[in-house]
Structures are given as C-alpha cells and as structure tokens.
Amino acid sequence: MTVAASTQYRTFIDDLARSESGRLLHSELGRRWPETSDQLTEIARYALLPAGKLLRPLMTLHAAEAVGGEPSEVLSAALGMEYLHVATLVHDDIIDADALRRGRPAVPTAYGIPNAIVAGDHLIFSAFAALADEPRLPQDRVAAAVAVLAEAGRDLCRGQMLEAQLVDNLEAGGRWYAEMIRLKTGALFRAVCHIGALLGGAEPDAAAALASYGEHVGVAFQIRDDLLFYTATAEQTGKPAGSDLHNGRPTLPLLLCYDAAAEPDRQRLLTVLERRAAGDNAKWVRELVISTGAVNSARDRMREHIARAHAQLAVLPPSPSVNVLSGIAHWTTSEDS
Amino acid sequence: MTVAASTQYRTFIDDLARSESGRLLHSELGRRWPETSDQLTEIARYALLPAGKLLRPLMTLHAAEAVGGEPSEVLSAALGMEYLHVATLVHDDIIDADALRRGRPAVPTAYGIPNAIVAGDHLIFSAFAALADEPRLPQDRVAAAVAVLAEAGRDLCRGQMLEAQLVDNLEAGGRWYAEMIRLKTGALFRAVCHIGALLGGAEPDAAAALASYGEHVGVAFQIRDDLLFYTATAEQTGKPAGSDLHNGRPTLPLLLCYDAAAEPDRQRLLTVLERRAAGDNAKWVRELVISTGAVNSARDRMREHIARAHAQLAVLPPSPSVNVLSGIAHWTTSEDS
C-alpha cells in the first residue's frame, strides 16, 4: 500500500467514528454507563470510556445493514460486542500482568485484581443482556445470536489457553499460531459480523459470508498487532515497547524469524525470550526479525487474509454498508494509525 | 424442626439425586465433559465433577415440569445453571484466596490463577451456550431465559462487590446484609427457577411465583451456609473452620451477634475480625454468637424465607414437581446434611 492509500484509510476510520452510526454508538455507550457512585458501573466506565474506534460494534451495525436490517434495532447488540471485547481485555491484563492499557493504568492496576475479575464477569453478563435487550427483533434471531456469541466466548478461552501453552515455545508456536489467533482474535470478529447478519435477517449464504469476512479481518488485525512492535512506537501502541518479548508470547514475526534465522541467531532468540530480557536485546531482535524477511512475510500473510475477506463481501449486493466493511478490511492493513 | 423431620429431608435430597431427573442430570453432565487432553475441558471437569446435589439444575427441571414443560427439552439449560454456579465458585476462590473447595484443592490452587480466570469465563460462556442449545424449544422462550440469566449474572457481580465493601464492617453490614445475599445468592436461585418456568411455557403469574420461590430458597440457603460455622464441623462444610472469620466476611449470625452483644464484646469482636485472628478466638466468637441468641435469630429469619417460598408454590396446581420444590425448601432448613 502506498503512503497516500494508507493515509486515505486512516482518514476513513476516523471518518467512520464520526459517521452517523459512529456517533450513535458513542453517545449510546455514554448514556448506558453514566457517572455514578456504583463501583461496578464506575469500573465498567473506566474500562469502556473514552471509547476507541468501536470497530466491533461498527462491524455489527454495518453487517446488519448490509443484509437489510434496521440499524437502530441492532444498536444494543452492537454495544454488547464492545462489552465482551473489553471484558477479555480486563481479564487478560490480570493474566498477563500488564500494568498499562491505552497508555493509562489497566483496570487491575487501577482497581485491584479481585475487582477486575468481577468487573470482567460483569461485562460478559452485560454483553448477553445487551444482546437480549431488543423486543423489536424477532426473538429466534436473538436466540441464534446468543448461541454464536457463547461459542465465540468459548473459542476465546481456548485461544487464551493455547497461547499460554505456547509461551517460550517457538517450535510448537509455528505449528499452532494460525489456530491460536483464529480462536483468540478471529472468533470474536467472526461473531461480531455473524451476529449483525443474523439480527439483520440475513439468508444463510450471506450470514456465512459475513462471518467468514469477520474472521479473516480479525486474523489480519491480530497479525497487524503482532507487527506493531516492529513498525510502531510505544506511543502509538499505548504499551511499553517489547512487551511481547517480556512475556514470551509467540507473535507471527518472531515465529517466522525463528524459522528463517541461522542456528546461532535461533539460539540467542530463544535465550532472549526465556530470560524475559528484552531491554538491551529488543533492538537486536527487531533487526533480526526485519533482516530475515519475517516482517515482510507476516505482512504478506496479513494481506492474504484481507484479500479473502474482500472476496467474501463480493457475494453481497453492493451498498454503502458493504463499502464500509470493505474499508475496514483495507484499514486493517494500514499500520501507521 | 425435629430430628426425625431433619433426617427425613436429608433422605429426601439424597433420594432426589437418585431420582430419574437426578440420574439424567448426572449422566448428561459426565457425557458433556468427558475425559480429554484438552486443558480447558479438564479444568471444567475438575470443577464440575464429581457433581454435588445438582440442586440448581434440579430446580430448573422441576420448575419447568411444574408448569407443564417437557423435562428433556430443559436438560441442557438446567446443566447450564450448574456451569454458571461453578464459574462463580472458581472466580470466588481466586478473590477470597480460598485454597480448598469441597475438601480438595480449589481450582486456582490446583491449576493456578490465570487458568482459573479463563476456566471461569469458559464456564460462563458454556452456561449461555447450554441455554441456547435446544432447537425443540420455542426460541422466544430461549431469548427470555437468556435475558433472565444475564441479569442474574449482573446481580451476582453486584452482590460480590457489595460483600467486598462490607468486609470488616459490622455496622454497615447490618443495613446491607439482606440486599447483599439477595444479589449474591438469591439472584441465581431466582433465575434458575424463573428460567425453568419460562422454558416450560409458564403463564406470567406462575413464572413470577416460581421466580420468587427461588429467591426465597436462595436467601434461606445462604443463611443456612452462614450458620454452618456455628452448627457444623469442617468435615461437613469442606472448608477450614472459621474461614468466614479469616476473611472478615459479614455473615448473618455475626451481624446479629454484634447487634445484640454488650459493648466490650462488640469491641473484641471487631478486633478479632480485623486481625483475621480467628484461631484462638474462634471458640469465643462461636460461644458469643450462640449466647447472644444470634444463631436462633438467624435460624428464624431463614425459616421466614422458607415459609414465603412455600406460599409462592401455593399458586401452582399440585403435582409431583411442586412436591419436589416444596421438599427442597424444607431441606434448606435442615442443617445436618
């Protein structure tokens, strides 16, 4: 992608947040989680607001609209997708002992681990409550959406478990990476689009296409996140540089680099990871990953998933919402925003 | 209750576990969580099996049957109630740092805190998956049941938060105790019966009566649990004696004792709680709670809730399932099982 195209898609995602659906989601989110003395609501507010791009809710809304659904009827469910996403972040920050999130103290740091456990659970329940909170929708669609979200949640947990088993294991990581990110990140993006389609009244073919679109975007999105350490600054990511090195997590660039590197470099890479000693070695790792071509290979794989996401959209009738979904897929491959 | 009646209800609950519905629940639970090399399933099995009385699933089944529902159609949802209950135990054992559960290592002790967080989440998602997993049911009933379970889950979290805020606070505890156990324990029992009623096709009046029955049984059940320290051995509870004293939790007998005690005893009670120094003082606390009449007062309150639970059942047409629900309410007041 050229610089001009990349800038174009960064503008696109900012415009999307300011679009009618973006503004609706933002204002409804603030209305549903008001300032209050209730501590659970306070923690939820802290975790949810100020909201980011609301990418997942936007995808739910536009998936519904792409199949002829009425966006206002999907608003509550769309916000529920954000609750579930943020719930997983809150629990992840306990598990990974990450002190920072979006450049400020993570929920466990700000409120303690016991409160973070309860707040995460509360957001999970709130996601299902939001999904079941629209009397105007045919209720068989709601029940189908619940089944999809519950399965995605189970997949997320499987992905989390698999990732923990792969820490420090660059050998097994190569074999299991695709499955891990399909579960860890692909599953929720898949569900987000599938649920929008189901609630919007999609025919089975269109629902399956939107679900598959979502999964490919999610997988590409995770690879993009893996790439950020090699292409972005800590300021851009909101996380300390090299935090993936600190926790031994197998990211795609590292795995591809390990595959491609010469033996002495492979050994040093393992040692750096196992010692959690990124500090002085972070620069060396970064250079090795780039010089082995791993950054480019990972980027190629990300673009393959985006191409497959686009191919799924081709089965839908053209509409402004399909254009938005297409734009989101493009944006995923732009790494400077 | 006389000794004879108490023995009768202990027999009743054992018989219930061996009844057709009890055996069906037990065998289906084992079938759905088989032995496997998958770590998430292994932890779920460890947490769920060997199953206890499966009180909540039995209540769901019999609530459904009491309003004319077909038990086999409610089986999956009934098991889901156990998943949610056990999920809260797994997360509670992290929060309370309880090392033992049912007389063996609790999940966080056996598998570590990160795995316990994920396993609890997985059981929550599995509860909703189980609820949405019966195509024979009218799907509007399923959607209504999801809304009830999600709200109950949110209440559980509120109750958990409230309990944490009341630790060591016997003054505020007295004011907030009823609300806390309504949220912490009453809400899930309420949902368990409400969901059975909804899935069984209950009319609104019958559904409301069964929901209210469940809440009163749940509240009575929590008071019974609070009383166990004063009436049962560690062997019977599966928890170290005095663990409530160790974590400063405000139980009803303690709160009533604090209300009734003379000033020097009140001060000593506060000091014992704050120092988490139950060991030598456990016997003194136990005797004070009994001598101030707090055990009897708590028991009276428990029986009031059971009487109100029975009153709710009176609106339903007589049936074997109503008899079972009535028996469960009676059993709750028997403290020796």
Features of the shown structure:
homodimer, 337 residues, mainly alpha, Farnesyl Diphosphate Synthase, two-stranded antiparallel ribbon, 17 helices, 78% helix, 1% strand
How are the secondary structure elements laid out?
The structure is a homodimer of 337-residue chains.
Chain A: H1 3-18, H2 20-32, H3 39-48, H4 55-66, H5 71-95, E1 100-101, E2 104-105, H6 107-111, H7 113-131, H8 139-166, H9 170-199, H10 204-231, H11 234-237, H12 243-246, H13 252-260, H14 263-274, H15 278-291, H16 294-313, H17 320-332
Antiparallel strand pairs in A: 1-2
Helix pairs in contact in A: 1-17, 2-5, 4-5, 4-9, 4-17, 5-7, 5-9, 8-9, 9-10, 9-13, 10-16, 13-15, 13-16, 14-15, 16-17
CATH architecture assignment name of chain A? Orthogonal Bundle
Query: What share of residues of chain A is helical?
Result: over 70%
- Strand % of chain A is under 5%
Q: What's the total number of strands of chain A?
A: 2
Q: Mean pLDDT of chain A, rounded to whole units?
A: 90
The value of Rg of chain A in angstroms is: 20 Å
Order of helices and strands of chain A: HHHHHEEHHHHHHHHHHHH
Quaternary structure type? homodimer
Low-confidence sequence ranges of chain A: none
Summing up helix and strand content along with how strands pair, one would put the structural category of chain A as mainly alpha
Count, helices of chain A:
17
Walk across the major sheet of chain A and give the strand order.
1-2
The CATH superfamily of chain A is Farnesyl Diphosphate Synthase
Largest sheet of chain A: 2 strands, antiparallel
Number of domains of chain A: 1
